[in-house]
Specification:
mainly alpha, 5 strands, 3-stranded antiparallel β-sheet, globular, two-stranded antiparallel sheet
Length: about 500
């Protein structure tokens, strides 16, 4: 028995030791060479690789969840936006903007639809502004869903829910102040009209708006692919919802040369005088490009084959392509699976961060993230956070992804609510870039750009009201803390 115990102890002693007798990690300088390698490879490289993997799954889950919501409510959102007469009432326009964004799980999509409808003269600029205000409120639902992933720990859930809803509170309070002002004075319409009139705008259809999707598409496109064009067509009254399919059917096309342009031989008849008459091409996708050489000196009619250019559509290849299930059923399946995937990713991300960020590391990181500039410059720290939030949101092209990624860090106490607040405001600014890009690609660019600029100046006006004066920061922060405390108390 003693020999066995000694053998176990000897085997254990072979492994490099990185902790003391109390389980605390030893300082890096006190480790042996083997222990240093073990800590770098296992405790840092592998753990960070696992965290990056779950972060990728987290972002993909958000994308799939958005697709599920669009399949469930995309057509209804399009129908709700198609009744432009309702938008003469500011409250109705606001509520429909909230509803459409909740159903689509994307304020960028709702804003882009409003911009497209304005460019097509289906909406007035002032009507679209109210929809954009509603889209700002609806977009923060995603953060709240993400905060649910930390429901198990009451303290973490309270902080995470407060960090998620500070976005809601800012948007809600901004609407409460700015909606009546806009309805009475129309200041956003007047301001953006003056700005757009001073700009020399040209249409640019080359703008890309899916920077983040280039990273997530390899996975999400294997599961589902959504065609958003029918939603815009329904909103514009160009398509009946019953005839629309949101599941993408074709994913590109190829051009090829064929000798059978009409499902029969295409011929050119040559008469004795050398005049050629080309057979009529009735296909809308085929055009004659070349003809074979003909002897024009003959006195007899003759026929020759001609070649034509044809287009073949390439069918999409993903899990639900060609399924017999209804779009609502596919949407429900995607929603349930994405929520499960989201919760799993959040749980493992929190566990990995807890392992990485403990002890002195956590204290140092928290001190760095929440640090203030020295001296009088400390008043500019929040504005730098706004710029960082705006810049990162422009990169990922999604305020929901950016703020949702920070929500678990708020729950863990790494990011204070006071720091999360300006980062969220920056995300509100950064997400308006999508609308500007959509406006640049519109055929009627002036009213479209006016709506996009109204979105930008609405968020900037909200910052002027609820951030510039330090005392005015208290209401949204206090409201978020109250919601976090109350929700954590009745979390089950």
């Amino acid at each position: 028995m003693t020999n066995k115990l000694c053998g176990c102890a000897a085997a254990t002693s072979i492994l490099p030791r990185t902790t003391d007798d109390n389980g605390e990690q030893l300082p890096f300088r006190d480790l042996t060479s083997a222990a240093k390698v073990k800590r770098i490879v296992i405790d840092y490289i592998l753990v960070i690789a696992f965290f990056a993997t779950f972060l990728y799954l987290f972002v993909c889950a958000l994308s799939i969840m958005g697709a599920g919501f669009q399949l469930l409510g995309g057509k209804d959102a399009g129908r709700s936006l198609s009744n432009s007469e309702l938008f003469d009432n500011p409250i109705a326009g606001l509520v429909l903007g909230v509803l459409a964004t909740v159903l689509l799980q994307s304020s960028s999509t709702t804003t882009s639809i409003a911009i497209t409808m304005t460019a097509a003269d289906l909406l007035k600029v002032e009507q679209a502004i109210y929809i954009v205000m509603g889209a700002n409120i609806g977009t923060s639902v995603t953060n709240t869903i993400v905060a649910m992933g930390q429901m198990k720990n009451r303290n973490e859930f309270e902080l995470a829910f407060a960090g998620a809803t500070v976005h809601d509170m800012f948007n809600f309070l901004s609407v409460c102040v700015l909606l009546p002002i806009e309805a009475i004075t129309g200041y956003l319409k007047v301001l953006t009209s003056a700005i757009v009139d001073s700009m020399h705008l040209t249409i640019d259809t080359s703008q890309k708006k899916d920077l983040l999707k280039k990273i997530t598409k390899p996975l999400t496109d294997k599961i589902v692919q959504i065609n958003k064009k029918p939603i815009e067509a329904i909103a514009k009254g160009e398509l009946n919802a019953a005839d629309a399919s949101l599941l993408k059917k074709t994913c590109g096309q190829v051009t090829y040369i064929s000798f059978d342009c009409l499902d029969a031989t295409n011929i050119t008849t040559v008469n004795a005088t050398g005049t050629a008459a080309t057979a009529a091409i009735t296909s809308t996708t085929a055009t004659v490009t070349t003809a074979s050489m003909v002897d024009f000196n003959t006195t007899e009619n003759m026929t020759v084959n001609v070649t034509c250019e044809k287009i073949r559509q390439i069918p999409c290849d993903y899990l639900f392509h060609g399924t017999s299930l209804s779009e609502a059923a596919v949407g429900a399946i995607l929603l349930v699976c994405s929520l499960f995937m989201l919760c799993v990713a959040i749980v493992f991300m929190v566990k990995i961060l807890t392992r990485l960020l403990h002890g002195q590391v956590a204290k140092s990181l928290k001190k760095f993230v929440n640090a203030e500039f020295p001296g009088r410059a400390k008043h500019f720290t929040g504005y730098m956070a706004i710029l960082i939030g705006a810049g990162l949101t422009m990169v990922v092209q999604s305020s929901s992804v950016f703020t949702s990624s920070l929500t678990p860090l708020v729950g863990m106490g790494i990011i204070d609510l006071e720091r999360m607040y300006p980062l969220t405001l920056g995300a509100n600014i950064g997400t308006t870039v999508t609308g500007v890009l959509a406006a640049l690609a519109s055929s009627n660019i002036v009213p479209a750009m006016q709506v996009a600029m109204a979105h930008l100046f609405f968020n900037m006006s909200g910052i002027l009201v609820w951030y510039v004066v330090p005392a005015m920061r208290r209401p949204p922060l206090a409201a978020a803390r109250f919601l976090g405390k109350t929700t954590s108390k009745y979390r089950w």
